[in-house]
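Hi Prof. W.,

I finally got the Transcriptional regulator, PadR family protein prediction working! I wasn't sure whether to trim anything, so I left the full sequence exactly as given:
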Amino acid sequence: MFNRRHDMRAHMMKHEGFGFGKGFQNLGFGEPNSRNMRDRFFKKGNLQFIILQMLEEEPKHGYQIIKDLEGCFKGFYSPSPGSVYPILQMLEDRDFVSISQQGNKKVYSITQEGKDFLADNVDKDEFTQRLEQFKHMDFDKMHEAREQLQQVFKLMFKASQQAMKDDDQKQQFDHIIDQTTQQLKDFLGTEEDHKEK
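And this is what came out:
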């Protein structure tokens, strides 16, 4: 019990700034709208699978691919042609896509080589797996949860400081921590209990 309270206090004190960017970082995306996010998103090795998956659904021209990528990232970042077309060129060089001309537009289609490459490798790609999590996030709810957690962390940190001044208050604070921990475990069900065993 002491260790659980100590760990919680240590975590609060270590993160006194109470930021909430870690959720994005844990997914491999970094802070929203940051350079880190852009750098991680638009690497040839990362996006090639996403683009191939799009082309497997139907052929697309470059602008369609850019808009579909923007949709994948829920508008958090809109890729520039300078980010996407080099990837398409790389895929063409590897014979994973072919190009046909429709009017004044180049339309990209996945080849059989591209389908084989996608089938053999997409399940191993960590970026694609993280993106699937990203697609299912509700960012309005995440923002609301962030604000709620920030308020809770601030109050808990202040309370932990106050508890150090008086034995009775420390006992009350310990009781609050124990109650909160148990309520969260009850809310999550028995999953956390199984993990601890």
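The radius of gyration is 24 Å. Does that look reasonable to you?

Thanks,
D.
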